[in-house]
Amino acid sequence: MAWNQGRTRIAAGALILALIAAAVVVKMEFFPSVKEDDFALSERNLRGVASGLVLVRPTHFARSHFDGVVTTTVRSFGKPVGRIIGRNVSFKDLIAAAYGQNAARVVLPPDAPKTNFDFLVTVRYRGRQRWQEEIRKQLGFVAGMEPHETDVLALKVENARLPGLTVSDSDKEDNADLHDGRLYFTHVQLGSLIHILDQVLATPAVDQTGLTNHYDFSVPWDAETLQKLQNRSTSRAVVDRILSDLGLALKPGTTTVEMLLVKRVDSPKFR
What we know:
With 271 residues, the chain is of the alpha+beta class. The protein has helices at residues 2-30, 43-48, 91-99, 127-139, 194-201, 223-229, 235-246; strands at 54-58, 68-76, 79-89, 106-107, 117-121, 141-157, 166-167, 175-179, 182-188, 205-207, 215-220, 248-264. The chain has a four-stranded antiparallel β-sheet with strand order 1-5-3-2.
């Protein structure tokens, strides 16, 4: 009887130790600690941050000069897993990243937060959905794609000869190659440029060229050009010059396009 009691005590003690160990593992996996150094904006740093994070918070770096978003990919159980970090970004940029859209296509409500945020997403599964849910719980906003009338920049043919475009051979593959200060596109449809124009000009762009061919072409992509493209006061002039060399132009207009409309959770649509 005494032996059985002793055996029971040992078994119970082993069970308690196992539960403690399991709790430690769960804490490490689902509640990893976050350090301010984790928000350094580099792919190398992001690859070293603990897994299992879905964090959205008011920024801790309001006075920092090193702001923005960085993404990278790590391998988990043999599969590529995306990671993303944001530091001192606007609410519009937070929403755009969480929903996989350009900020140019985000429509905010009048009561949207005016403050900036940090975010960090390193979960293995359903990262974007869990990120969106975190925004919903903490900030009370959700978003969805809807047709919306808005100002746009329409990409049109300006010179019918299309001097900078060469119709691509059908056996080529889509590609972009950088060398000697130029970015060479191969077998690309002009509609694929819309995403780039959205991002650079912070205005929705639409393809109204009517061109359906695949083309080969190149554009300047040196340090000076990149610097001007990143500056809101000079980006439009650079884009206009590049498009003119291709025989294209951007014309302002108004039309209905799919936009990411942001609403409060308690708005009628989401009750």
